[in-house]
Amino acid sequence: MSKQVRSSRKTVRDIARQKGATPLVCLTAYTAPVARVADEHADIILVGDSLGMVLYGMDSTIPVTLDMMIAHGAAVVRSTSRALIVVDMPFGTYQESPQQAYLNAVRILKETGAAAVKIEGGQEMADSCAFLTARGIPVLGHIGLQPQSVHSEGGYRVKGRHEAEEEKIIKDADALVQSGSFGIVLECVLPAIATAVTERVSVPTIGIGASAQCDGQILVTEDMLGMNGASVPGFVERYASFQDDMGVALGRYAQDVKNRTFPAARHCYATSPSSSGSWNDAAESKISPRKKAAS
Ligand code: KIV
Description:
By secondary structure, the protein is α/β, with parallel strands linked by helices. It folds into two domains: 213 residues, Phosphoenolpyruvate-binding domains (TIM Barrel); 32 residues, no CATH class. The chain contains 13 helices and eight strands. Strands 1-2-3-4-5-6-7-8 form an eight-stranded parallel beta barrel, surrounded by five helices. Strand 1, helix 2 and strand 2 form a beta-alpha-beta unit. Helix 2 packs across helix 4 and helix 4 packs parallel to helix 5. It binds 3-methyl-2-oxobutanoic acid.
């Protein structure tokens, strides 16, 4: 008889139930070390295509490929057990047709183990969103500022400052809900509009540069930790200065190497056992934790 394994990982249903209750904590992660820590705090971890800019130094998210998203998505799934993992569909992998979106979303779910995908776009993506959700693929929508449209928009702009834009955001949100999306990311949308959408729709809204009234918030983890250079969008709160701390630590290491104070005896392997019969335990013991972290 088969044995059922219970997972404590959040599901899209858990996320949907949090609408109007405790705000959803959402973070991005692209790598195992960041994902491990984020998993202790986040309801949703998004493997965002922002990785193209944050990790790979690209100018935009446009060059990001499906293979990159799958490699990073799989690393994040492997190193987490609590949060719902959502993987971004990169530019050019879903916009052509619902069938294209389906085939590529299937690859993401099969090859990463993630439970959902995110796509950018509202009314124009409604058919694809419906096609995916009808076939068992949960979809997180993303409207307002859509970074994959940077070329047609001529840059990154706040959304909702004109009446037509406000109407479009509302219609986009309605279209996503009707086509079955389990949540909606609202990026760089004026607070009053984000609040209005949140009150209007039945699914959780997740704000980024939007409003504290959204059902949840997301930030790019590297931005909020100060790991991503000096310039971050104005909506980011810096909770740490990792890049500065890293500079100090690497500077100390460089100094130790130049002074020959690193490695010390405790970091080196012995050629014979000590009088107590032990080898250099300190250096030996450094092997196993690394092995454990990698497994
Ligand atoms: O790619 C990303 O990280 C995102 C979030 C910022 C919402 O889409």
